[in-house]
Specification:
This protein has 20 helices and no strands. The protein has a single domain, classed as Up-down Bundle (Growth Hormone, Chain: A). It has about 450 residues and is mainly α.
Length: about 450
């Protein structure tokens, strides 16, 4: 990486256009996380209102698993097609339409009248989210030819994703506390509906600035010269890329498995803590929001740590293990002890767990563009993040919600904590072993 940086001219200051592109990418990354982080907060009240389901019941656990898994699986499958479209039709066009899709789907989800309808709109929301991430990463990576600048831009723009988590936490807290003063939705003032509605916000500025956004220069030049190959997903499994595709897919699946199999279940565990049980429903939801704030701050800390280390640790395997090895201990300990007894320790444990987990998400945004050529960049990124992360990784939510039914414990919350501890340890152990086979990029420059 050092040699590549020296052979490339030193980067000048960002141009106005580059700042706008980075801002659009930041907006997209932030609301990607907003949509994912909203689900754990709105699940309990949404299932209670739309389905009349009792917390901890078998049917309740089933719907939790379905709402965690199916939207991401649908988004992942169609997101793979979105990666192909990104390589075929350009980064900017696909990025723009994906943000519009999930913005307006979020609006529709806020007006859901039944659980199946909520599930449908969550599917279309996550479809847009899954496509947007791939298009944005490819777009940013190709905009900055200097390796050091590119790594920093990808790291810091992805750190903005934490803002989305903070925004959903603050939005939900305000909706819980002051929802009665907001315009009614379907005759009521349910906080979960307002939280979903806010997800449409990124679509508004995008409609204004879209005409000023340029296409990726690398993709545009190859397209104009007639040298851009047609993307063929089968190339991902030919000898030159097979190991890269299989190992990254497994590791990305583990990153998402830690989130969906463990950490995102905390909003349902916290109300079962002794200090929270005696509170009113509104106070419980406010406490959940407070814990979620620590998760968001951990998210920000982890992504900033990755951005700071990405140019300092040359080996990608070593950089990934900086976050994998601590997680191997933090996740099971958090759910086996604090998550069953101590609210204050839950907050600090959540911060640490979120930091080591979300740093990995930013890691993949930096790593994947460096191992796939231009005509396969979106397709390769999409396979790892959508099939590995959004399909295989999110299935950990189904594993956790089904393990709950056979776990020991004095309450539904305790059973869920035990299940999350087991799944969290399993995915971190798998990732720690698999990291030994992660291919090191051959150079700092992007493959042509």
């Amino acid at each position: 990486m050092v040699a590549d940086s020296m052979s490339t001219p030193a980067p000048s200051s960002l141009t106005a256009t580059q700042w706008v592109i980075c801002a659009v990418a930041c907006l997209g990354f932030a609301f990607d996380v907003y949509e994912a982080a909203a689900l754990p907060l709105i699940l309990r009240p949404a299932l209670a209102e739309l389905g009349g389901l009792q917390t901890g019941s078998t049917e309740f656990n089933l719907w939790v698993g379905l709402l965690f898994f199916i939207p991401f699986a649908v988004g992942g499958i169609f997101g793979l097609l979105g990666g192909y479209f990104t390589d075929r039709f350009g980064r900017r066009r696909v990025l723009t339409w994906s943000i519009l899709l999930y913005g307006f789907s979020a609006l529709a989800a806020g007006y859901s009248t039944s659980l199946p309808l909520l599930l449908v709109f969550r599917c279309t929301t996550m479809l847009g989210v899954c496509v947007e991430f791939v298009a944005a990463v490819a777009w940013l990576a190709e905009l900055f030819p200097n390796p050091s600048r590119r790594e920093s831009v990808l790291g810091y723009t992805q750190a903005s994703a934490a803002v989305g988590g903070l925004f959903v936490t603050v939005s939900y807290y305000l909706a819980v506390t002051y929802g009665e003063h907001l315009p009614s939705i379907r005759g009521g003032h349910e906080a979960w509906r307002y939280a979903l509605l806010f997800g449409m916000l990124p679509a508004i500025p995008l409609m204004v600035i879209r005409p000023f956004l340029p296409e990726s220069p690398v993709w545009r030049e190859k397209k104009a010269a007639g040298t851009l190959k047609r993307p063929n997903p089968t190339e991902l499994f030919r000898p030159a890329l097979r190991k890269t595709t299989l190992v990254t897919t497994l590791l990305v699946a583990c990153s998402y498995g830690a989130a969906f199999g463990a950490l995102l279940h905390l909003p349902r565990i916290v109300p079962g803590l002794p200090q929270v049980l005696r509170l009113t429903r509104q106070q419980q939801e406010q406490t959940v929001s407070a814990v979620n704030f620590f998760l968001n701050m951990g998210d920000l800390a982890g992504r900033l740590a990755l951005a700071l280390l990405v140019n300092r640790i040359v080996s990608r395997r070593r950089l990934l293990r900086v976050f994998l090895i601590p997680g191997l201990f933090i996740f099971p300990l958090l759910f086996l002890f604090p998550a069953r007894h101590d609210l204050e320790l839950v907050k600090y444990g959540t911060f640490l767990a979120a930091a080591v987990m979300t740093a990995q998400f930013s890691f993949w945004g930096n790593y994947l563009p460096r191992v796939y050529p231009t005509h396969l960049r979106g397709t390769g990124e999409s396979f790892a993040t959508n099939i590995g992360g959004r399909v295989l990784g999110t299935s950990a939510a189904l594993l956790t919600t089904q393990l709950v039914n056979v776990m020991p414990g004095e309450s539904a919350a305790a059973q869920l904590a035990y299940a999350a501890a087991g799944v969290g340890f399993l995915v971190y152990l798998t990732a720690s072993v698999a990291s030994f086979w992660l291919p090191e990029p051959k150079q700092g420059q992007l493959p042509a």
